[in-house]
Every structure is written in C-alpha cells, then in structure tokens.
Amino acid sequence: MKTGFDKEVFKKSVIYNVKSQFRKTLEEATPEQVYQAVCYAVKDVIIDEWIATHKEYEKQDSKTLYYLSMEFLMGRALGNNIINIMARDEIKEALDEMGFDLNLIEDQEPDAALGNGGLGRLAACFLDSLATLGYPAYGCGIRYRYGMFKQKIVDGYQVEVPDEWLKNGNPFEVRRSEYATEVKFGGYVRTVWENGREKFVQEGYQSVMAVPYDLPVVGYGNNVVNTLRIWDAQPINTFSLDAFDRGDYQKAVEQENLAKNICEVLYPNDNHYAGKELRLRQQYFFISASVQRAVLKYMEKHDDVRKFYEKNVFQLNDTHPTVAVAELMRILLDDYGLTWDEAWEVTTKTCAYTNHTIMAEALEKWPIELFSRLLPRIYQIVEEINRRFIIQIQQKYPGDQQKIAKMAIIYDGQVKMAHMAIAGSFSVNGVAQLHTEILKKQELKDFYEMMPEKFNNKTNGITQRRFLLHGNPLLADWVTSKIGDEWITDLSAISKLKLYVDDEKCQHEFMNIKYQNKIRLAKYIKEHNGIDVDPRSIFDVQVKRLHEYKRQLMNILHVMYLYNQLKDNPEMDMVPRTFIFGAKAAAGYKRAKLTIKLINSVADVINNDPTINGKIKVVFIEDYRVSNAEIIFAAADVSEQISTASKEASGTGNMKFMLNGALTLGTMDGANVEIVEEVGADHAFIFGTSSDEIIRMEHDRSYNPMEIFNNDQDIRRVLMQLINGYYSPQDPELFRDIYNSLLNTQSSDRADTYFILKDFKMYADAQRRINEAYKDEQWWARTAMLNTASSGKFSSDRTIEEYVRDIWHLEKVKVEV
Ligand code: GPK
C-alpha cells in the first residue's frame, strides 16, 4: 500500500460525493451513483499527483512525447486507477465496511471504447507503460460522443447499438476550455506579399473550436499521472467570425453542424479504409488542435521554434494522423516564418511513423479533389513535399519512372498517406519482427532501399497491470506469493516461475486457479448467453475483430468437421471442448457478419444435440470488449491465433493469453513467431503454410482450392453443409456467399483468398494434438505455467523502453508528493 492513503478520509469522501452530486445518503444511492462517488473520491487522490507531475515536467523542461492516435481503447478506468495508486486492498476494505462490493461497483462503469481493436488497445497499453516508467507523454485523440458500437446478437445476427458511454458523464475527465483551439476547413488560399515575401492566407473557410478534455493516466505506484487529451468540437461563437461574416446566419448554422458532426462517432472499421470525407475532417481536426497546442506550449518556455524537435516528438499511430506532417509545416512556415528547408528539418526530426498492417485495403489514399477542397493550404504544402520528394527519387534513381510511380506521395489523382508518413518521418517501424521484415522486403521495399536508416522494429506488448494484476487477481496473487511482486513493474522477473514448473503442488495450484477462472467465465456465459458450459472442458478461445484474414471461418468449419466425426463415431475419444468466440464485425462488412450468423447457427445445432453428450459446445460471447476480455483471457486453455501467415502484423491478444497461461494454437504469423521463440516450439501448437510460401503463392497464383475440395471428402462434406441447409433449414442458401468465397473465382480475385482449405487439415491435426496433450494433466499444467513464465518479453514496458532508446530519447522523471 502506498503511504498517504487514508481509508477513513476516503470513506468520508465517498459519502460527501454521493450527497453533493446526487443529494442522497449512501443508503439511498443507486449502484451507479455509488460508482460515480467512488470515482470522485479516487480522483481526489489522483489530482494532486497529476498537478505535481506536470509541475515536475515543467521544472525539468523535459522532452515530451505526443502519441497521436485516432483510437485509444481504454476500457474501464476505475479498477485500473485504484490498482495504480496502490490502494486496491484499502478501497476494497473501505467499501466492504460500507456494504458495497468493489467488483459490482466496477461493473457500473461503461468501457471507454474509443477504438476498434488491436491498434487502439496498443495505444492504451502504451499510455499505461509510459506513466509507469515515468516518461513525459500525452496521448492525443478525439472525444467521440459514440465509441465502438455495442453488439447485440438477435436471431444469430449482429445488431449494432449506439454506445452512449458519456450518458452519465465521465467522472475522471477535466474540461480544459482555456486551451480551446480554432481549426479551419475549406475556403481558398490567397497569396499576398508582405515584406518582400510570399504569404499564404486561407480565406472563406469554416471553422470549429476544438475543446480539450483531459483524462488522467495513472502510473503504477510512482506518483506519475500523464494525460490523455481528447478533443471535442464546438461551434465557433459568432462574435469571433470575421467582421464581414458576422450576422451571416447561414454560415453560423453550417459551422454549428460541422462541429456537431466531427466528433459524433468512431468509424468502426478495423484494418480497412473507407474514404469518407468526415473521417478526413476528424483526422485534421484533432491533429491541427494537438499540433497547434504543442507548438504554443513549447514557445511559452523557448524562443527558437527551429529547435522544437529537441523537446518534442510526435509518434504517428498508423497513417491516420499523418496530416500532422503537413500541419506542422504549415505552422512553421505561415505562423513562424521559417524557410521551407528550416521547417522541413524541424518536421522530419519530430515525426515518427508506426505501420500496423500490410493489408492493401487498409491503405489510406485520399482523392485529390476531396483533400484539396477540405484542406486547401495543407494540400499546397503536400504538393510541395511531393515535388521535392520526387526530385530526391530522381537523384537516386535517374530516369526510373517506375520508382516515381510506386513512391510518389501524389499519384493517380490520390494523396498516399503512407508515402507522406515515410517521407516526413525520421523513423518507420513495424510491430513484430516478421512484420518489419515483410515491410522491408515486400510492401515498402522501395522506401527501405532508398532510406534503410529509417526502418526499425518494435515488437508490440501489453500491460500486465491490466491483463494480469487487474483481470486475473487469483493468478496475480499466486505469482506474487511465489516470486514476489517485481513482475508488476518488470515482467521479465516472471521467468522466476520456471523454478516451479516441475513442482506438482504448484502445478495443481496453477491449474486450480485456471479452473476457478473458468467457473467465473462459465457464470458470465450462463448470465449473458443462457448456455451451460462445463468448466472441466477445454476452453478454446478466439476473441478478436472479425476479419477474413483472421480466419474465424476456419475455426467454425473445423467445429463442423469435428461434429461430423462425432456423429459418425459417438464413442470417439475426445476431451469435451468449449469453443468460445467473441468478435465485432464492421457494420458494413457483409461476409464478416454472415460468419457471425454461421457461428451462431452451428452453435444452435450442436448445443442442442443430446446425442453428443455435451462433448462440443459453441459459444458466441456478445459484445466482446476490454472489460469482458479481462475475464476471458484469464479462463482460456487454448489461444486461437490462426491468421493466414503474413497477414497479422503482430497480434496482442496472443500475448494476453500467454500471460494468463493459455497455450497458443497458431500459425507462424505476427508475434506468434516470437511467442514460440520465447516458450519453445514444444510448448505451442504451430501449424500451417509459412508466410514465405503464402507470399509466393500470391505471386504465382498456383493455389487452387477446388482441387482440395474435390479430393478431400471431409472438407467437401463440411462445405456442402454450408449450402444444403444443414445449419440453416429455413434458408439453405443462407451461407452460399461463404461457400462461394472458398471455391468460386469472382472476377480477378482468387477463391479462398486466405488459404483456409490449404491449411485446414494441418489445423485439424494440430487440434488433435491438443486433444491428446490435454489428457496428460501434468504436461498441460507444466506447459501452461511455462507459458506464463515465458511471457516477460511481451510487456508493453519493454516495448516502450525500446521506443525511448531508439526513437523518442525521453528522460525519466521522478515525482514526489
Ligand atoms: C492494424 F491497420 C490496423 C488497423 O487498422 N487496426 C488494427 O487494429 C492491428 N491493427 C493489427 O491488425 C494487429 O496485428 C496489431 O497487433 C495491432 O494493430 C497493434 O499493432
């Protein structure tokens, strides 16, 4: 426990907050009101550290990281904050004494779901690690009024429901209207001459006020509280319009609507670019506000903007914030009068870019028409960046038109954001070793050859504070009882558990905790799905966004195959298995949504077939999100990481499972490669076509899934069940599209784009190996423990230290209160 926390003061504070916020006594308050009051009481503790942290940063004049991201998938704050101020036991006790259960209070909190999946959750883990390691950092993003939609399953189909996460207010946030910043859209650029220099003035624009809301990001036990700054849009008050525009009613209305729309909703697409104008508005909105503020803040204490990069670094989380390159140039050129070369030097020493995917459909390419209409001055600057970049390409590759076609920032009527990010950054990184190698050798080969010094790898990580200490308290306490609590801030120390993997008593304790966590999940499933699952069965889990490349389809096809086997041979020797799925599909992604329906249809048939004695159960967990993920990871035996090799840049769920003692069933893709490297190939179930071979087959087009279909009776039977009404008697054609996707060539696309049939039998074989392995209780217990013990590398603390060492060059700050 941390010094300075006073239980009695805390209790009084809760009672006072219930009274002042809701004019109620504790006894009268609803659980939601008690939750709010507890948050305010915790905020009281945090706020002094928050102030002290920023005082210290100012005093030290520290270099600051701005992590620019469209997404921060934070999940719930209360439980995490309580843990990080090191007051879990005291607050639990205090609430007990007042007659409340901390877990139930925590359950009142809506998830802050300002992200889609891996990319947004990575940003959230990074903030936790930055604060815990004591590095000065801001997260900068958007305060979406509606975050990731809530998923309901109705008749087996996904239905999207708006996520009203701000409905009852957000107790931890602080509105900072004093930092409101104007952001301009549209209009035109006029050139004027001033003191013998060309000046560019944007006129006839519409603008909005960006108003920041700050959220505390609490470091673990170190008094450091960083800031996640999310921007809201407000209409400009009409008095600040140009004299000319004052009284222009139409314009005032337009500006009001513009402001309303910008922060309305998070685009629910993962690994997919939709090209919507409003999305580009969102990007420029939060980037312009964040960059303007960063420069102003720097200039409060410094006088030479040419040295901006010495005290500031911008990390671009994918290409979504790339307009920062041009916005920083604009400010330096237009507001501070730097020459192009001076401004470019500052910009390219400030910006660094992380790539998170090689999926072609995720690449952001804005039509020039849209881009230049919305951001006329920014477009001018991008044109000039492009012009100079092409000259550089020509100098390096004289006469090579191909290089220009492949590398230009503006080409074919489009602005290519990845190309701008690379040209404008001093660092370009991938998120796992394999992914970075594929970037260098394939996707970004030309850029790598031209500027190899920029490229580097930073393998992703996760925070053990949320995904073990908070999500799995039983295991967390057990680990601490064995090896001490060093692992909480240095996960490499968890390897000390290796001493105990052969100890039978420890094996039992470890597996008993897993069993308790399976009971907890079984209860959750019973409450939310009405399905009974047996906690003694193998919990085989695939939770992640629904995407064809992640191959949830292969998983459910295998369930269908297994069920066929069991029907043919009811005596088949098989450990009972519970197949658990959780996934949101992008609202417009038809095939992904149909896959959800397929999973639920298969579940209906199998779960209600008494002849198989409950040997297979299939569960689709509704509304998979950060808060229920914590419960799911803790309960998993098998971690499904089965993407087509080369397609999953890293994966981070894979690491959360490993930390919690699940065994990986996976392809050699993303960070799975490094997981196997750490735990040893004998302690994971690896299968499938290698990334090299996948890439080769994609080039030579030699793969023909129809051949497999024609020659493999098991596969043929499963696929026929997609179109003969076996799982959809009322509509036998229901799953025709999925069947077609595997077998029929549509236009120039290859059938079975993600090599499901190619890998299917290898997958089924790996599944059989799991069935056998689970029977050896001792082997399984030892291996599960070994997975936890080998997960040290995958802490986001390690990842952040590498970013600091190679890219950001920050210094740790100590905060005393
Ligand atoms: C990558 F490009 C994207 C995207 O739009 N959204 C997203 O979540 C993920 N990602 C990758 O798919 C994962 O492999 C990776 O672990 C994660 O980003 C974090 O790097």
Automatic annotation (TrEMBL):
Enzyme class per UniProt: transferase
GO MF annotation list: glycogen phosphorylase activity; pyridoxal phosphate binding
Modified-residue entries (N6-(pyridoxal phosphate)lysine), positions: 656
Summary of the function given for this chain in its UniProt record: Phosphorylase is an important allosteric enzyme in carbohydrate metabolism. Enzymes from different sources differ in their regulatory mechanisms and in their natural substrates. However, all known phosphorylases share catalytic and structural properties.
SUPFAM superfamilies, alphabetized: UDP-Glycosyltransferase/glycogen phosphorylase (SSF53756)
Any one GO biological process: glycogen catabolic process
Substrates-to-products reaction catalysed: [(1->4)-alpha-D-glucosyl](n) + phosphate = [(1->4)-alpha-D-glucosyl](n-1) + alpha-D-glucose 1-phosphate
One GO cellular component term noted in the UniProt record for this chain: cytoplasm
Top-level taxon of the source organism: Bacteria
Keyword Zinc in record: no
EC number: 2.4.1.1
One Pfam family matching this protein: Phosphorylase
Family note: Belongs to the glycogen phosphorylase family.
Keywords recorded for this protein, A-Z: Allosteric enzyme, Carbohydrate metabolism, Glycosyltransferase, Pyridoxal phosphate, Transferase
Cofactors demanded by this protein: pyridoxal 5'-phosphate
Gene3D superfamilies: Glycogen Phosphorylase B
Protein name as annotated: Alpha-1,4 glucan phosphorylase
